[in-house]
UniProtKB/TrEMBL annotation:
Region (Disordered): 911-930, 949-1046
UniProt GO cellular component terms: cytoplasm; microvillus; myosin complex; plasma membrane
Similarity comment: family membership: Belongs to the TRAFAC class myosin-kinesin ATPase superfamily. Myosin family.
Domain SH3: 1044-1101
Protein name: Osteoclast-stimulating factor 1
Residue ranges annotated for the TH1 domain, each copy included: 727-919
InterPro entries documented for this protein: Kinesin_motor_dom_sf, Myosin_head_motor_dom-like, Myosin_TH1, MYSc_Myo1, P-loop_NTPase, SH3-like_dom_sf, SH3_domain
CDD domains: MYSc_Myo1
Residue ranges constituting the Myosin motor domain according to the UniProt record: 17-689
Stretch list, region Actin-binding: 566-588
Ligand binding (ATP): 110-117
GO molecular function: actin filament binding; ATP binding; calmodulin binding; microfilament motor activity
Name of the encoding gene: myo1ea
Organism: Sphaeramia orbicularis (orbiculate cardinalfish)
Length: 1101
């Protein structure tokens, strides 16, 4: 159905590893699933299906099957046509969006280090590659692809489990036009782990950008930003990890800066971003000491650089880090009190400012990306969700609690749509079904986010609201409240320093220390005022808060914010058609081909893969409501196209019968059709594709004809314009069709050998080349897009072929090296090709065609017009020959004089050649309009014809090229030429032949070149009496009417018809005049044939 073969990396000649789709497993249990995944993983097959769900195992190395070949292989292919691949899922999303006109999304889930971010990048890269578009669309594609390295630099970090762990969540919507071109996009980010700026576990790193800047900044940047070594900064040296094996921070820095440029961030703003990043590092070097019970800056010299980078006063920075303004309300009076902070509070304030600066720069970058891709209206979109995976560390805090909550919500979507909703749908539609049990994690989601009864988040928010002024003891109060209110919940346990939640992925123990403080997530007004006092407008814009506005209600906590974001995300995803990628991490060593059985089995269990397989196996691979099914497959039958008229259910049955689908392969529900096996669906898709392929070929054929016609007509017009008002024209050359290859190069390997293998032949013909003594020598002139070739013949002087004549390349001129082409102003066929070394004088019958093609190729190569010189005295530079004292090129002249007849008479002398030729058609003569229309009709409606030998057009007729060549060979370059006496005084033809012919002809004129019908059309082949009625029996014939007397004229000159609707006649022929016209073209009849003729060739009698 597709017009090319498909090659792919999983050869069918080698042993298959396990099964591609685990629905086909003979046993359905965790051990069988793990064993199948292991077999495939060890043979480098990282993708496996469970029906439409893609399972991806992180290989911890670059795999070879993500290139252009694979993109071409999966584009437009059905899912099971090729081995499992993420490109198949991406292509399915894109095609479904275009066909069903519905938004799509892909939910990528799995624990940290399972390969979710890489999967998201492959999806975005594939969709960007296969979708079309012009420069604007390409700009959007560039932003989509470049947003990844930029956001990874500021939002990803090395953790113990993943060297490039996403420390934020993002939902990337790629927005499309109705034609499927990406013309916009939007990123929603949430839950940036900003605490990583100031603290992290041993062996981990902060965000990549800090290390990239220190390693990759230029000497000038390092000097202006105060950048030294990595271990100089307190924020970086606390975890003892600086380098990562598979990360090159220096080259990544260049990529990050390039990404900012592509997105459209100005150079000044890029510099400000780096200035803030450096400012954060320098803030971390400000330490405090005890001064009584209060904090004091340990070394004030460390205040100068961050104050300078952030554009704030050094003393004010010190003040805001060691004290805080507290508002106190007594009755209606509001007082502000400056409270001096202790060392712990000062460190917290410093870290809060650092975290806020990094978080707001990150939000600025996301906003910049969104502005660069903004679209004023919504059409279609594909969403890609990339969020950090489920996390279980030795010490799990508030961040892990939020991350795992979002993962619980995503797992709930998966359960709702693939397990719960699917089974409920079978019941609603009346489909026979045996229920399958599964764990529904909604109970865990309610434990965390419920309002009534209050869940964990509500209790934490309540504690933060009631103890907002008291930091100490808040965590223990929270823990006590949790024990009282939800200790009996089956998925909750408490311990002396925290609590345990039984997540879908396992039990996680959370440490209560710092829970309330991180949930409060308040940036003190003092720090906002400090940043708003900056001299730098860019920094002031990052803190737009109105501090004078009256505060109403509780402040928004981090927990309530993430809960709202998670529910908004779920709502967005539920409005799309979802697709799923379940990522599995095979080991903790982050090494290829290392397989930890127990770890993989645990992930298989909590991802619910066994239940997923059972549902898919017992259920139906495809379901659609009747209307959408009819819309998609309406093209299969005449009765259903363009719309089915009648009952929708009957229409669906009609389509199924049309492809002979077995009854046991589908069920019809109340509103939907259910198809059991994917193979049955492929039958429908293949038939549909065949139909579209046939129609597409018809459209392509018509379009190609149209383009060819347009290009051909344009070429003819350009050729005519080159000589217009500059050179007289031969009468037969005006309306001649351009053939190009008059030598039949496809059948001439002896000539083809001199031309490049893939070079196209634009023009090929026999010409006469004149040497320095004006001796004419036959040459084959060939033009390709690159060069002009002159090929001659010589006898072989030695070897086994001695004495035989063989082809020899006499000259090759690169098109761009041609300096000019010189021609006379008369109707001759001479031209001179000027080149730096020496010139070539040629006589070419089809010079107009050759020069027009050469001019086009010259402009393509040089972006300049080909210089054409017209003069009746032409100069030719000779080739330098090594003949001793006779060496030296010199020059020759070719002089054109007015003579008689259409054939040139040559008179050579030692240094000049005189060419005498009679007058041709005026210089302003153009191609006849009717001839152009005939050409268009031929090109548009006539099939391309292949003649045994190339043809040349002369005087409206078709002649064999060999005959044309023979004529040229016998007549050219001899002084014994016999000009026609009749041509000497023959008048010029009227110029408006097309108008008169259009008026005089009411019947359509047949295209004789294409159809090969008689001159008078198909009707002209019948006898006039063929349509007479049979006379009545015995009735005498009536007397014939006398023939009407028609005016007549006598031919003064012979005239050869130039078209099929014209008359040819000799001098003294008597022509009946049927109609006279003021244009000069009359209609007449001669020897039974009717046609047009010029009135200045005749006289009335």
């Amino acid at each position: 159905i597709r017009g090319h073969y498909r090659y792919h990396w999983q050869s069918h000649n080698v042993k298959h590893s396990g099964v591609d789709d685990m629905v086909l497993l003979s046993k359905i249990n965790e051990d069988a699933i793990v064993d199948n995944l292991k077999k495939r993983y060890m043979d480098d097959y990282i993708f496996t299906y469970i029906g439409p769900v893609l399972i991806s195992v992180n290989p911890f190395k670059q795999m070879p099957y993500f290139g252009e070949k694979e993109i071409e292989m999966y584009q437009g292919a059905a899912q099971y046509e090729n081995p499992p691949h993420i490109y198949a899922l991406a292509d399915n999303m894109y095609r479904n969006m275009m066909i069903d006109r519905e938004n799509q999304c892909v939910i990528i889930s799995g624990e940290s280090g399972a390969g979710k971010t890489v999967a998201a990048k492959y999806i975005m890269g594939y969709i960007s590659r296969v979708s079309g578009g012009g420069p604007k669309v390409q700009h959007v594609k560039d932003i989509i692809l470049q947003s990844n390295p930029l956001l990874e630099a500021f939002g990803n970090a090395k953790t113990l489990r993943n060297n490039n762990s996403s420390r934020f969540g993002k939902y990337f919507e790629i927005q499309f036009s109705s034609g499927g071109e990406p013309d916009g996009g939007k990123i929603s980010n949430f839950l940036l782990e900003k605490s990583r700026v100031v603290m992290r576990n041993p062996g981990e790193r902060s965000f990549h950008i800090f290390y990239q800047m220190i390693e990759g900044a230029s000497g000038e940047q390092k000097s202006s930003l105060g950048i030294t070594s990595l271990d100089y900064y307190s924020y970086l040296n606390q975890s003892g990890s600086y380098k990562v094996d598979d990360i090159d921070d220096k080259s990544d820095f260049k990529e990050t800066m390039h990404a900012m440029d592509v997105i459209g961030i100005e150079a000044a703003d890029r510099a400000m971003v780096l200035q803030i990043v450096a400012g954060v590092l320098h803030l971390g070097n400000i330490n405090f000491r005890e001064a009584g019970n209060y904090a004091a800056v340990e070394s004030e010299e460390f205040l100068a650089f961050p104050a300078f980078l952030l554009g704030i006063d050094q003393n004010r920075l010190k003040e805001k880090l060691t004290s805080r303004k507290m508002d106190s309300k007594w009755g209606s009076a509001l007082e502000s009190i400056d409270v001096t902070l202790n060392v712990e509070q000062a460190c917290y304030t410093r870290d809060a400012l650092s975290k806020a600066l990094h978080a707001r720069v990150f939000d600025y970058l996301v906003e910049s990306i969104n502005k660069a891709m903004v679209k004023d209206h919504q059409e279609l979109n594909v969403g890609v969700l990339d969020i950090y995976g489920f996390e279980i560390f030795q010490k799990n805090g508030f961040e892990q609690f939020c991350i795992n909550f979002v993962n619980e919500k995503l797992q709930q979507i998966f359960i709702e749509l693939t397990l719960k909703a699917e089974q409920e749908e079978y019941v609603q539609e009346g489909i026979k079904w045996t229920p399958i049990e599964y764990f529904n994690n909604k109970i865990v989601c309610d434990l965390i986010e419920s309002k009534n009864p209050p869940g964990i988040m509500s209790i934490v928010d309540d504690v933060c609201a009631t103890m907002h002024a008291v930091g100490e003891g808040a965590d223990q109060t929270m823990l006590q409240k949790l024990r009282v209110q939800i200790n009996t919940h089956e998925h909750f346990n408490s311990w002396n320093q925290g609590f345990i939640i039984h997540h879908y992925a396992g039990k996680v123990s959370y440490d209560a220390e710092g829970f309330c403080e991180r949930n409060r997530d308040v940036l003190f007004n003092d720090l906002i005022e400090l940043m708003q006092s900056s001299e730098i407008a860019f920094i002031r814009a990052l803190f737009p808060e109105n501090l004078n506005a009256e505060k109403k209600g509780r402040p928004t906590t981090a927990g309530s914010k993430i809960k709202k974001q998670a529910n908004d995300l779920v709502s967005t995803l539920m409005k799309c058609t979802p697709h799923y990628i379940r990522c599995i991490k095979p080991n903790e060593t982050k090494k290829p081909r290392d397989w930890e059985e127990s770890r993989v089995k645990h992930q298989v269990e909590y991802l619910g893969l066994k239940e997923n397989i059972r549902v898919r196996r017992a259920g139906y691979a495809y379901r659609r409501i009747f209307r959408k099914f009819l819309n998609r497959y309406a093209i299969l039958t005449k009765e259903s196209w363009p719309t089915w008229r009648g009952d929708e259910k009957q229409g669906v049955l009609h389509l199924l019968r049309s492809v002979n689908m077995d009854q046991d392969q589908f069920q019809l529900g109340r509103t939907k059709i259910f198809v059991k096996a994917p193979e049955s669906l492929f039958l429908l898709e293949e038939t549909r594709e065949r139909k579209f392929d046939g129609y597409a070929r018809t459209i392509q054929k018509a379009w190609r004809k149209y383009v060819a016609r347009k290009k051909y007509v344009q070429m003819r017009e350009e050729a005519s314009d080159l000589l217009l008002n500059r050179k007289e024209r031969r009468r037969h050359s005006l309306n001649r069709n351009f053939v190009g290859d008059y030598l039949g190069m496809d059948d001439r390997p002896e000539l083809r050998q001199f031309v490049g293998k893939r070079e196209k032949i634009d023009f090929a013909d026999k010409v006469t080349k004149f040497d320095r003594r004006f001796k004419g020598i036959k040459r084959d002139l060939i033009l390709t897009p690159k060069s002009v070739y002159l090929i001659g013949r010589e006898k072989v002087k030695q070897g086994p072929e001695k004495g035989q004549v063989t082809e020899v390349l006499k000259r090759r001129i690169d098109v761009e090296k041609i300096l000019a082409v010189s021609l006379s102003t008369m109707q001759d066929d001479f031209m001179i090709l000027h080149e730096q070394e020496y010139d070539s004088l040629l006589e070419c019958v089809f010079k107009t065609e050759f020069i027009s093609l050469l001019a086009r190729r010259f402009e393509e190569k040089t972006q300049r017009k080909l210089p054409l010189k017209f003069s009746n005295t032409l100069e030719m530079k000779l080739k330098k020959e090594n003949w001793g004292f006779l060496s030296g090129g010199g020059s020759r002249q070719v002089v054109f004089v007015q003579g008689q007849g259409d054939m040139p008479v040559l008179k050579p002398s030692s240094k000049s050649l005189q060419v005498s030729i009679g007058p041709g058609l005026p210089k302003n003569t153009r191609e006849y309009e009717k001839a152009r229309r005939r050409t268009e009709t031929t090109c548009c409606y006539g099939e391309q014809r292949h003649f045994p030998l190339p043809v040349a057009h002369q005087n409206g007729g078709l002649k064999n090229t060999n005959h044309v060549a023979n004529q040229r060979n016998s007549s050219h370059h001899h002084n014994q030429r016999h000009p026609s006496s009749s041509n000497a005084t023959r008048p010029f033809l009227p110029s408006n032949i097309s108008q008169i012919k259009d008026r005089n002809t009411n019947r359509p004129q047949p295209n004789l070149d294409c159809l090969r019908v008689p001159d008078q059309g198909a009707a002209g082949a019948h006898r006039p009496s063929a349509s007479r009625p049979t006379p009545g029996g015995g009735r005498p014939k009536p007397a014939p009417k006398p023939k009407p007397q028609v005016p007549q004229c006598k031919a003064l000159y012979a005239y050869d018809a130039q078209d099929t609707d014209e008359l040819s006649f000799n001098a003294d022929d008597i022509i009946d005049i049927i109609k006279e016209d003021a244009s000069g073209w009359w209609t007449g009849r001669l020897r039974g044939k009717q046609g047009l003729f010029p009135n200045n060739y005749v006289t009335k009698i």
